[in-house]
Amino acid sequence: MKLIAPSILAADFANLNKSIKMVEEAGCDMLHIDVMDGRFVPNITIGPVVIESLRKVTGIPFDIHLMIVEPEKYIETFIEAGADMITVQAEACVHLDRIIQQIKSTGAKVGVALNPSTPEHMLEYVLDQLDMVLVMSVNPGFGGQEFINGSLRKITNLKAMIEQKSLNVKIQVDGGINQNNINKISQAGADIFVAGSAIFNSTKPTEAVKHLRAAAMSEEER
């Protein structure tokens, strides 16, 4: 099953409640929330206080992507705020295994994200502990960027690693996803698709989600 995860980065920040209700009614599977600290990436977004407020108005699963340095200091705070899944950047974690165990101990699902230039084999010794790998198909920090085609090979290689080890690990892809490229990303091995502008900038978000999901499916799934 192919899952659609709208990125709140592309939402109307003056009307977040309305934006979330819109994608919830459109049948999206989870909400992708990017947390940026202005250090690991040049942008600054939202923190646990906002997430806690959003948690009160929706039951949609929160997929929290921590694009921050020293994420281990804030994991419990984001879990308390309402995170269902915590994804950390491999490049920001000196002791990646320890942080994975820290997240798992809270009962939340755990993901690890890889920047475009980070090779997939970096996860070889922790892959069996993950629920998800997030392939960044743009350089993180800002929405609206174009998909980096080199990401397709990384997705394919990750899928092969997962299948070779017979693991139940999902591959999520974030950055530049739209109706024109989602099928080839899906065919490469992706399971979860983070889409921002393609959904929130659409005049008909429900139709946009429906078309994205259909385009991601194989002929057998349709």
UniProtKB/TrEMBL annotation:
* Biological processes annotated in GO: pentose catabolic process; pentose-phosphate shunt
Q: How is the cofactor bound?
A: Binds 1 divalent metal cation per subunit.
Q: Which PROSITE patterns match?
A: RIBUL_P_3_EPIMER_1, RIBUL_P_3_EPIMER_2
The answer, when asked if Zinc is one of the entry's keywords, is yes
Cite the entry's keywords alphabetically: Carbohydrate metabolism, Cobalt, Isomerase, Manganese, Metal-binding, Zinc
Q: Where does a divalent metal cation bind?
A: H32, D34, H65, D174
The residues the record assigns to binding substrate are S7, H65, G141, F142, G143, G144, D174, G175, G176, G196, S197
Gene Ontology cellular component annotations, sorted alphabetically: cytoplasm
Name the Gene Ontology molecular function terms of this record. D-ribulose-phosphate 3-epimerase activity; metal ion binding
Q: What pathway is this protein a component of?
A: Carbohydrate degradation
| Cofactor(s) the record lists | Zn(2+); Fe(2+); a divalent metal cation; Mn(2+)
- Its catalytic activity? D-ribulose 5-phosphate = D-xylulose 5-phosphate
Q: Function of this protein?
A: Catalyzes the reversible epimerization of D-ribulose 5-phosphate to D-xylulose 5-phosphate.
Name this protein carries in UniProt: Ribulose-phosphate 3-epimerase
Give the organism the record lists: Tindallia californiensis
Name of the gene this protein is made from: rpe
